[in-house]
């Protein structure tokens, strides 16, 4: 079993849709959780950083963590074509001094 | 505030050669980690340095090595290049090691290495 599982997509949605991106992880020692957005041929850009269970909102983006089920989500409201990118989840904080990434979900928002 | 700077952006090398990639972290950040990204394997952890000490190393052969200088700048070296080393190499910097709090990691744009 991979440490972090993420549906690779692609996920295609119309502009304005609500998007739900999800990851599951196996290591219960993970304490904080990051979401990155990566455009083609660019480095990943940190979108959200959350600690422990609960929700965190930043503009159109909401990150949700459920540590009991080892499930993390990123919601995008009113999706825009500029949101078309690959989204990577990265749980961390297990004292391994490394980040483990999901394989990334490719999102396409159609105008 | 300047971001993470990686040089060079693009590199073409032939098999058997060696290559050195450079990463300048965000000012004040003492942790630098390196990742290899390929279409088939995704983002794979190479190693992390904090205060010039390697804290962890990923599952890569010994041909891959790195170091960190006193100013937190880091270099990674790949010797005896193979075709399979063609990838985007990404560097990330953070205030503290990834096992600690406040360790949002910020990535550079990467160095795209092509081995022919």
What does this 3D model show about the protein?
The complex is a heterodimer of chains A (111) and B (116). Helices cover 0% and strands 53% of the residues of chain A. Chain A has strands at residues 4-6, 11-14, 19-25, 32-38, 45-51, 54-58, 61-66, 71-76, 85-92, 105-110. In chain A, strand 4 (32-38) and strand 5 (45-51) form a beta hairpin. Chain B has strands at residues 5-7, 10-13, 19-24, 31-38, 42-50, 53-57, 64-68, 74-78, 87-94, 106-107, 111-115. In chain B, the strands form two sheets. In chain B, strands 2, 4, 5, 6, 9, 10 and 11 form a seven-stranded mixed sheet that branches. Chain B has a four-stranded antiparallel sheet with strand order 1-3-8-7, with no helix packed on it. The mean pLDDT of chain B is 92. The A-B interface holds A 31-32, 34, 36, 41-46, 49, 51, 88, 90, 92-104 and B 4, 6, 33, 35, 42-43, 45, 48, 50, 55-56, 58, 90, 92, 97-101, 103-110, 112.
Radius of gyration of chain A: 13 Å
Of all protein chain pairs, which has the greatest interface, and how many residues does each chain bring to it? A-B, 27 and 28 residues
What share of residues of chain B is helical? under 10%
Q: Give the structural class of chain B.
A: mainly beta
Low-confidence sequence ranges of chain B: none
Our estimate of the beta-strand percent of chain A is over 45%
Biggest sheet of chain A, in brief? 5 strands, antiparallel
Low-pLDDT windows of residues of chain A: none
Q: Into which percentage range does the β-strand content of chain B fall?
A: over 45%
Kindly name the structural category of chain A: mainly beta
> What is the residue-averaged pLDDT of chain B?
92
**Which oligomeric state applies?**
heterodimer
> How far apart are the termini of chain A?
37 Å
Rounded to the nearest angstrom, the distance between the terminal CA atoms of chain B is 37 Å
Main beta sheet strand tally, sense and closure of chain B: 7 strands, mixed
Shape label of chain A: globular
Question: How many distinct helices of chain B?
Answer: 0
Instruction: Specify the number of helices of chain A.
Output: 0
Helical content class of chain A: under 10%
The chain-level mean pLDDT of chain A equals 91
